[in-house]
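Page 37, continued from 36.
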């Protein structure tokens, strides 16, 4: 359990990660964090790019959708975001964002914003699953592995973080049993966030990249941490349906309808504790299975 002072500091660091430095002419610079992955975490780039687009749109038009492509692996270094004001319509606003490190374009995103309007409403019901209380978080699961945890994961993967994830049906992180291509994860920021809705959407975009691609491995008994698979996010789409707060528990219900051609397609629905569907996500990622005798780096 993270003490309140540490939790507040970790969440402040995440919020600061989404605070972009204006460079003029709709250009922004952001810092990067190292969570132990070889390249910069894709969720960080998703959140920062959405924040960059949001900074060029009035507060009366919240983001309702985003579509992104991961073009090159990003380094653990500052990232520059440039925003193109594609369209400012009567109800909808469109922005295009390009992320660069040096001369390399590593990522691009299109985002759409809309005035707050009334209309018909319906949603799929939230799955009936256990609540987050009493579930172990992923950090506790990794620590419990002890010496079984590969050395490359022992520092970053067990360090406290500003977002907590709790799987409803946790399995062995290193040797999972093959199962259905479905998962359910409770997630939240571990301390109160500012009231800025842009921050909540950006951090939900950040978190939506966690656990999504892994569900494509479940039918095959594979996992990220075992080193058997070389994964990479290819694209990511997200839709925001209703208001939410990311400092309260949200349920991420995910599935993978298909894997083929060394790619896996995954989908996610995000619900509040009281069952409101607040966002949806979809991602396709590369999943290259390593030959059994290939060295793992």
């Amino acid at each position: 359990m993270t003490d309140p002072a540490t939790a507040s500091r970790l969440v402040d660091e995440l919020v600061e990660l989404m605070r972009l430095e204006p460079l003029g002419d709709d250009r922004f610079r952001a810092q990067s964090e190292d969570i132990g992955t070889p390249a910069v975490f894709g969720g960080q780039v998703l959140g920062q790019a959405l924040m960059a687009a949001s900074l060029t749109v009035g507060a009366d038009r919240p983001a309702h959708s985003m579509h992104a492509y991961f073009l090159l692996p990003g380094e653990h270094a500052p990232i520059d975001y440039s925003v193109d004001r594609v369209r400012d319509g009567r109800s909808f606003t469109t922005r295009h964002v390009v992320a660069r490190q040096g001369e390399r374009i590593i990522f691009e995103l299109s985002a759409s914003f809309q005035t707050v309007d009334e209309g018909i409403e319906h949603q799929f019901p939230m799955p009936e699953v256990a609540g987050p209380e009493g579930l172990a978080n992923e950090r506790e699961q990794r620590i419990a592995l002890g010496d079984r945890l590969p050395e490359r994961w022992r520092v970053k993967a067990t360090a406290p973080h500003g977002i907590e994830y709790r799987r409803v049906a946790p399995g062995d992180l290193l040797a999972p049993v093959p199962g259905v291509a479905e998962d359910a994860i409770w997630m939240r920021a571990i301390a109160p966030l500012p009231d800025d809705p842009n921050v909540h959407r950006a951090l939900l975009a950040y978190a939506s990249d966690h656990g999504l691609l892994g569900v494509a491995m479940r039918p095959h008994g594979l996992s990220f941490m075992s080193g058997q698979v070389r994964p990479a996010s290819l694209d990511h789409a997200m839709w925001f349906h209703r208001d939410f707060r990311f400092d309260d528990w949200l349920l991420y219900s995910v599935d993978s309808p298909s894997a083929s051609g060394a790619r896996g397609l995954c989908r996610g629905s995000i619900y509040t504790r009281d069952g409101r569907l607040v966002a949806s996500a979809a991602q396709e990622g590369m999943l290259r299975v390593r030959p059994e005798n290939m060295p793992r780096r």
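The helical segments are 4-17, 42-54, 138-144, 197-208. Flag for discussion at group meeting. The first strand starts at residue 21 and ends at 24.
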